[in-house]
Fold this protein.
Amino acid sequence: MKIACIQLNVAFGDIEKNFTNVEKFIREAADKGAELAILPEMWNSSYALEKLEDLADPNGERTKNFLQKLSEELQIHIVGGSVSTKKDGKFYNTMYVYNNKGELVSEYDKAHLFRLMDEHLYLSAGDKQNNFELGDIPAAGVICYDIRFPEWLRLHALNGAKVIFVSAQWPTPRIDHWKTLLQARAIESQCFVIAVNRISHKKQNFNGQSMVIEPWGEVLWTGGEDEEMAIIDVDFSIVDEIRQRIPVYDDRRPELYKDILK
Ligand SMILES: NC(=O)CCC(=O)C(=O)O
């Protein structure tokens, strides 16, 4: 499957600019033959958390309508990164995923809120998993800080995911954590990890380094530090072969780890 990783420069609080830019990139991805496009975290409003009352998408309606139309018209799967939403009077960091027939296949609210960026002061956390299928590929999606919780990603892998999509706004000072955690999650879960970060003009804030990693841990692509879209061809059939070579799922001993759920 040809995957377009769209590493955006998300404009702070400028919803119109961000929608225009995202549409341009998704159209370009489809033109270039991509079958799936993935976006970064909070691409509508960015982290303008104090202005969420004005900026967050009510029930995600604008975003859903936008992604639905593009995915159906261009016949492309879209892992819609995440956007700020307002649902039942609360704000969330929400991922929508559409298949290439324009059908919504999942809606996920970020489960782990990142205190260092004040998410816990403004947002509510989701409590549902995010497994879905795109074509015949069992997949999962998580958002940024979620990758620091191996239990969470393992649960998605145990529920069948062969690829875990990650949308992020991961800042430059901890970019080494980003790379190491993504690679570890791919190896331990024996999944593809396809992770898209944002960039910013001041590269000290956000410097991209989006990644595509196969289940043996080999990095197939790392993004640069500028806005870009890369189309990476991935072969999901290698997942089963790798899981047979080292049968981690058969060798697990969950009875030894049950206390981790406390
Ligand atoms: N947007 C986020 O969740 C950022 C997570 C992060 O930077 C981290 O170090 O974890």
Remarks:
- The mean pLDDT is 97.
- The pocket of LYUYDEPV is lined by residues 41, 114, 117, 144-145, 148, 169-171, 174, 177 (CB under 6 Å).
